[in-house]
Amino acid sequence: MAAHPTAEFGMNSEQLESIVETSLARAGAQGATQAEAGASVGTGLSVTVRRGEVETLEYQRDRSFTVTVYFGHRKGSASTSDLSSAAITESVEKACSIARYTAEDPYAGLADAELMAQDPPDLRLDQPWPLTPDQAISLATVCEAAGLDADRRISNSEGGTVHTGRGVRVYGNSHGFLGSYASTSHSMSCVLVAGAGEGMERDYWYTSGRDPNALLSPEEVGRKAAERTLLRLGGRKIETCTAPVIFPAELARGFLGNFISAIRGTAQYRRASFLLDALGQPVFPAGVNIDEQPHIPGAVASVPFDSEGVATSDRALVADGALQSLVLSSYSARKLGLQTTGNAGGIHNLVVSGGAGSLKDLMAAMGRGFLVNELMGQGVNIVTGDYSRGASGFWVENGEIAFPVTEITIAGNLREMLAGIRAIGDDVDVRGAIRTGSILLENMRIAGD
User: Fold this and answer.
1) pLDDT under 70 in the chain at which residues?
2) Vertex 201 angle, CA 257 and 163, to 5°
3) pLDDT one-digit tens code per residue, 280-290
């Protein structure tokens, strides 16, 4: 592959590829029957401005190398942040030494050779933002100022932050696969405080993506953070009840992330999922479709191949409400007697069908219920599906926000919650690996006063 223009790393993709190829050859020379290695370099700039003054300015430079070797079905791994020849040699030797003494695992090994990506596509993942520190400081200052100036009730700030990062990753294995790609990640955020004394509230907003030209303006981020913070003022508890609940798009991602956790190979082969033996069964209401689309140009979770070199491709996870596939690496697939789905390293752009309109449309359809704004705690049991999270948000009457709500708990069971989805909006949040709109659930238990 052609070398990526990555002079700022002090090392380009061709040099990283050479490191990976050399390490694989050394592993083979030491008796490894299979081997895989990955090398990466990256740089980043982060700036936070608080109350108009620079609070932090950080420049990151990262390097990493990892090698995994197999002696039959015995596995050993080693890693280092030193990319010198001596450190690479030592890492390979350590990995081989570990593998010689580990127990046999019949499922251990590389992904099958015929599954390797043959002609990885260019997905436009590398879109640099050549910011100087002064430019980053200026953007963060404008972002924070827009929030502070939005309303006199905005009383404080935790800062405006700008981040830009760029990296190159190379992966190769003893099947002869060698692939690399460069990628970028950019973001801008603002955290504000409104009110005074015991009536203070905090909220935030952010924009992120691979393409700096697609980010919201700093003024938009600051004003959105202020708007969200002001809406929380005057929060109160409500009586314990059962009512419909809306997860806005930015929180719906996390809700559906619980579903993904339940269909991961590790949860399945450990028999630790509320969705055991659910393949082919209805999990969502009819009409809900979830497709994985790893090759969306410039998307934050797009990849040409997974972390085992397996080719990624479009596939259906859920069709008309029924579960069609699991989320598998080669190891978990072998444990289950299946084939990897190309998800070693994670999921890649899950696109959730919507069409029920905007968040306001979902509120109108709900009529009366609870709109979640923030979730707290980790009360999700993937084994049983039990769900209980601290929450704050807004009580909705006649399709409109009536007042802010604080210090409550929302609870249910994920199996029932997924099946009880009434509508999915088209206000899709594309800032994460799960691309979904807001979600309206039929009913949840709400514990208040």
Assistant:
1) 1-10
2) 55
3) 999 999 999 99
